[in-house]
User: Fold these one by one.
Assistant:
Number 1:
Amino acid sequence: MAKWKKVLTSRDSGERLAYQGELAAGVNSAEGQAHIKLDPARTYQSIVGFGGAFTEATAYTLSRISPEKRAEVISKYFDLEQGLGYTIGRVHIHSCDFALGNYTYVEDNDAELKTFDISRERKWVLPLIHDAAKAAGQDITMLASPWSPPAWMKTNGEMNHGGQLKPEFREAWALYYTKFIKAFREEGVPIWAITVQNEPAAVQTWDSCIYSGEEERDFVRDHLGPTMHREGLEDVNILIWDHNRDLIVERASAVLSDPEAAKYVWGTGFHWYVSEAFEEVGKVHELFPDKHLLFTEGCQEGGVKLGEWFTGERYGRNIIGDLNNWTEGYLDWNLVLDETGGPNHVNNLCDAPIIADTTTDTVHYNSSYYYIGHFSKYIRPGAVRIGLESDITNLYMTAFKNEDGSIAVVVQNEGDAGQDFTLELGADSVSDHLSAHSIATYLIKP
């Protein structure tokens, strides 16, 4: 008979990723009980991992608290026993809004990129990535994304406020990615994948650049893909889109319907802003089943939300919705922000799962931190989503089988009332109660 264990985070009881012990298992017999049935024979996508972004804002904020608190935060994210077991990360290629200002790696008008220099990243970002890898006991699987080409490469002459890449600089900009990847490799940080452009459909007050679907297709097909291969970096994956779900089908189709562009593309990255239309993510898989899907950014907007519970529920609901639609990994936005929800060079303040108060040297763990942990700690890289059927409409749920044979089932209750149900695996089952505004991970060792 299988062994069943439960880990719980509950708003009202104060439990946070709290082990509940073994559940009493029996043979299926509950009549009239709501059921969740697992089917390990039905399998879907495998998991790359869970993680967050190593922004300059995060790394700088951690440099402003005590070394002991900084080490605690790193452990609480990347150590599997003491923390969430993060294994993947995202880094910006030169500046983004969560940097201390606009910056690039080359001098103005250096189209040959002879002045390319990432030394700025050695101050805060690279040391943080190295320390995270030590805590994780392995290299972090890193995704790199640009927010804007240098101002002189763009039609509007600035890094902020949108603009487009000038046609005459497409080759130079493609080469820029490869120089970044090689420079990070020399620093001991392998880059697993890149995205073409962060949020290519949004004119932002911060670092941004606009591509139509056709422009992104042509840039990948004619410049970025061939340049990556020519520079010996064909092992580094390319992701397109890197923007919201609402337009994901249209944008993925614009690029992936072209075989010459598609051959360079690993998959589609996406964000959670604007829409929770998870089925749109699934449609991309249906259209292009040989390509991959990765959640590349999400955060709670509007500054710090200390102590709020809805932020954690937003993470849990979105992670489950996307995982059930073929998503292979989840990247939160800033790992850490300061007490203001920054720093951000255009005051686009946000929340993060961990807030570090640099005035009091205090670290705050938001509900989102614990909700993410219900996935990242127990659904490990290489895990495969399995079949799950349920007649319960008021709970969110997903199930995965890890490489060691263990099964992790995550069930979330956003309602104001508790819910009884029976969780079944073959002839075995457990009956349980999930309290209001809580999330549980059920761990099954057959």
Number 2:
Amino acid sequence: MSALNLDDFTDLIERPDGGVRRDAEARRERQAVPPGALGRLDDLGEWLAAAQGVVPVRPVERPRVMLFAGDHGVASLGVSRGPAGGAERLVRAVLEGGRPVSVLARRLEVPVRVVDMALDCPPETLPADVVRHRVRRGSGRIDIEDALTPEEAQAAFRAGVAVADEEADSGTDLVVLGDISVGGTTPAAVLIAALCGTDASVVTGRGGEPIDDLAWMRKCAAIRDALRRARPVLGDQLRLLAAVGGADLAAMTGFLLQCAVRKLPVILDGVVSAACALVGQRVAFRAPDWWLAGHSSGEPAQAKALDRMALEPLLDQGVSVGEGTGALLALPLVRSAAALAAELPEVAAEDEEGGPDAAGEKPDEADGGTDEGEAAEQPAAALKPEEPAGH
């Protein structure tokens, strides 16, 4: 296997089309509802038009929920409400339709794809299309050992790139990205603390199923110890993912970067996808222009990462369950923005000026004058609105 050169992503990733965005803004100014009256929906519609490279924006017709799954050795320390090695149960529940993301996806008619990268279970217990990219069984306990070997980190990253290519080639036009894990918020917090230069206590949250104070202290200690192991490898993003990430996080990072290469927009879910996005930003600074923050999960590390990437969450509903649920809630908002941007009618120029006499010109008086207070009739075509400033 040839070595990965992450610097290539800097050259491959372009920003969404700025010219198309300006065209979308100009079109918005001509529409019936005044610009700004739709709030962030205006920005969303213009962002999506730039990502698609077309005006008017196309509807989002083939979205996909993408969930990367893995177990984390650090869960054995009791840093999570879920049992160590218990992510397989969550994956099965998602596949069987019994998790919140499954219910929402069914209602919104969005397919869900689960990719097992490091579940701690025999691969034959899950469908072949779920396990075919698996790198290993569980990731290492990051407070005392590396999560992955360098070879495993590279394989997981490449798997994420391959999955992004599969989705782009199949016609997916927007991805809702989440994770299924037990213990995954701990390596996510470590990555964010390392990249933002903060202490463990600043990024230690309560997790998807909130933990008590004793578990929080154990989690904070694990993040502190893992941070010591992370700092020496901050300059090498693959080594960082190998040391304190995990196979699912490495794959999500590769997936996000390749989506940006393929100009495939992504809605980020919680702290795990935010951590991977932050690593991706370190690799290619233009990559976050292709991502939206779906919601605020309440995790302090997520807020730190989104602030660093200048991404503002679309929703804040207190959803902490993970598995792409909060990000999927934002999908109807994005679809609504696209529909409004594409379907609101444009207003004729004379209507925008408020009618023929809007420029304040007085009609010529007829011979003999007019009665006081009575406007002289004149064809509308004879009056021309003033040219707007700057034209």
Number 3:
Amino acid sequence: MNLLLIRLIIFAVLFFAGLKLYRMYREWKLDREDAEQASHQGGQMVRCAWCQVHLPENDALREKGDWFCSADHRDKYLEERRRED
């Protein structure tokens, strides 16, 4: 009877340890998939120099080291810089 109880306790400990490891693996895998999916969706986020809106780098326009969300904002920003210079 004593040996049976010890075996039952060992089995329970191994079962819960395996369950915990499985949950940790599943969470790690989901986090990794989310990170890969985010990198494939649009890349790094950049900020429009005119309106300060963040957008994916793939959708942004770049001019003279600055990022813009549209051609209109790019033109307004560059026109304002020309007036300042």
